[in-house]
Amino acid sequence: MSSIGTGYDLSVTTFSPDGRVFQIEYANKAIDNSGTIVGIKCKDGVVLGVEKLIPSKMLLEGSNRRIHAVHKHAGMAVAGLAADGRQIVGRARSEASQYLSFYGEDIPIKELCDRVAHYVHLCTLYWWLRPFGSAAILGGYDRDGPQLYMIEPSGVAYRYFGAAVGKGRQAAKTAIEKLKLSEMTCREGIIAVAKIIYEVHDEAKDKAFELELSWVCDESNKQHQRVPADLLEEAKVAAKAAKDALDEDEGMDAD
Amino acid sequence: MEPMAGGWMSAAHSMGTTILAVEYDEGVILGADSRTTTGVYVANRASDKITQLTDNVYICRSGSAADTQVVSDYVRYFLNQHTIQLGKEATVKTAANLVKELAYQNKSFLQAGMIVAGWDKYDGGSVYGIPLGGTLLRLPFSSGGSGSSYLYGFLDQAWRPNMSKDEAERFVVKSIALAIARDGASGGVVRTVTVNAHGVERNFFAGDKLPLFHEEISPGRNPLLA
C-alpha cells in the first residue's frame, strides 16, 4: 500500500503536494519489518511483551534485550532499528533522572511520554538529521495509576489500553481488542500477552524467537521489572499450548 | 556589632530575623518577626517575611533580603509553570527541592536561610529547612535567622506532635516573642500563616499582644495611634 514519493521523499524537510512527509513514512517501514512488540493496560498495571527475533544461533540467550528500564516506575519496549531504540531509551532515562533531581519527585508518565515524543519529533525538523527508525511502547505507574503510551517516529504519542507495532501488529491488535482489559489483572495479562506473541509469530518466515515480558503493577510494588522467572515459564507453557491447539485446529481444517 | 557611622545608609538590607515553621495535626504554621535592618538602622519594622510560592506552599525568608526575594521569585515562576504542565497543584517537596537547587548551586553568591512549608494531599503538612549551604531537610519543625539561636532549647522541650491549631499558633507566637526579647536584630510584630487542607489563614500579633517574659518594658499605649 506504499506509494513512491518521487522527488518529494529525499528530505525530511520536504512536504509532498498531498501534505505527506515521506521520510517519516519510510521510517515507519523499518518498524513494520521488526519483531512484534505489545503493550496492554490491565486494571492493576501494565504488561509489555516482545517477540525478539533471533537472527543467529550464536547469540547468547537474554542478550540484545528489547525491554528497558527507564526509571523505577517506568519501562520501555522498542521496535525497529535497535540502535535508534537505544537512543530513545537513553533520552527517556535522562529526562526521568533530571526531573527527579530538579523537582524532587518521580516524573509523571504523561510528562515522560511528552518529553520523549518532543525529542523524537525534533529529529524530523532538520534536514541534517534523520527520523528515528524506532517506535517505543512506554508503560509506567504513577500517582494517576498505570498508563500505557506509544511514541512513533513522527513524534506523535497517544495513550492506549492496548498497543502493538511490528510485523504481527494487525493480528496482535485484533487479539488485544478481544481481551477484557478492565477486568484483567497483570497476572492474567502476562499469559494473554504471551499467547498473543506466540500466535502472531510466523514460523515459516522467522525461525527462532525469544519472548521478553515485563510488568509494572500493584504486585510488583508499582516498580517496573522483568516478569519473575516462574511466571515467565508459566506464560510460555500456556502460550505454547494455545499455539499448538491452534495449529491442530488449522491442520484439521486443511483436511 | 559596631554601629557603622553613616555606613548604614548604603549597607545591604539584612533580615536579622527569627523565622519558624511547625507541623500540627491538620497542616503547618509558619511564623516570623518583622524587623529588616541596614546595619543598626531598622529599615522596615513591619516587613512580611513569609512569602507565597503557590496556593498551598509558603516560604520563610532570613538572611539577605535581596537574595531571598530573588530566590522566591524564581521558584514561584518555576512552580507556576510546573503546575500548568502537571495539571494539579505542586507538592511541598517539589517547592522545597527547587529552593534547594538554587541555594546549593549558587551557594557562593547567596546568603539565604529559608524554610519552606505547606500542605499537599500526598504528605499532608510538611516543613523543609534549607539553611545557608543548601541542605534540604524535612523536619517536624524548623527555625532560622539570628533569633533562632535563643530558641533551640525551648523548641526541643516544648514542641509536641499533633498539636491543635490554637496550641500550635500559641507555640509559634511564644517562640518568636522569646527570640525578639533577646535578639536585637529581631523585633516588630509577629506574623503567622496557617496552611491546611481548607486553605490559608494569615494572622498578625502586634507588639502589645505579645507575652512578656523577663524585665521587658510593657509596650503601653502606642503614641502613633493616640
The largest pleated sheet of chain B is described as:
6 strands, antiparallel
The number of helical runs of chain B is 4
**What share of the residues of chain A lie within helices?**
25-40%
Gross morphology of chain B: globular
Q: Which stretches of chain B are poorly predicted, pLDDT < 50 over at least 5 residues?
A: none
Q: How large, in whole angstroms, is the Cα Rg of chain B?
A: 17 Å
Beta content of chain B: 25-35%
Q: Tell me the total number of β-strands of chain B.
A: 13
List unreliable stretches of 5+ residues of chain A: none
Beta percentage of chain A is 15-25%
Order of helices and strands of chain B: EEEEEEEHHEEEEHHEE
Biggest sheet architecture of chain A:
5 strands, antiparallel
- Helix/sheet category of chain A: alpha+beta
Mean pLDDT of chain B: 91
Shape of chain A: globular
**Biggest chain pair interface:** A-B, 8 and 12 residues
Subcellular location (chain B): Cytoplasm; Nucleus
Pfam families (chain B): Proteasome (PF00227)
Protein name (chain B): Proteasome subunit beta
Organism (chain B): Sphagnum troendelagicum
Structure summary:
Chain A has 255 residues and is of the alpha+beta class. Chain A is 38% helix and 25% strand.
Structural write-up:
Chain B: It is found in: Cytoplasm; Nucleus. Chain B: Belongs to the peptidase T1B family. In chain A, 38% of the residues lie in helices and 25% in strands. With 255 residues, chain A is an alpha+beta fold. In chain A, strands 8-1-2-9-10 form a 5-stranded antiparallel sheet, with helices on one face. Chain A has a 5-stranded antiparallel sheet with strand order 3-4-5-6-7. In chain A, helix 2 (82-103) crosses helix 3, helix 4 packs antiparallel against helix 5 (186-200) and helix 5 (186-200) packs across helix 6 (229-254). Chain A is globular and about 50 Å long. The model of chain A has no long low-confidence stretch (mean pLDDT 93). In chain B, the strands form 3 sheets. In chain B, strands 1, 6, 7, 8, 9 and 10 form a 6-stranded antiparallel sheet that branches. A 5-stranded antiparallel sheet of chain B has the order 11-2-3-12-13, covered by helices on one side. In chain B, 27% of the residues lie in helices and 31% in strands. In chain B, helix 1 crosses helix 2 (92-105). The longest helix of chain B is centred in the middle third of the chain and has 22 residues, at 65-86. By secondary structure, chain B is an alpha+beta fold. Chain B is built from 4 helices and 13 strands. In chain B, strand 6 (50-54) and strand 7 (57-64) form a beta hairpin. Classes of the chains: A alpha+beta (255), B alpha+beta (226). Chains A and B meet through helix 2 of A and helix 1 and helix 2 of B.
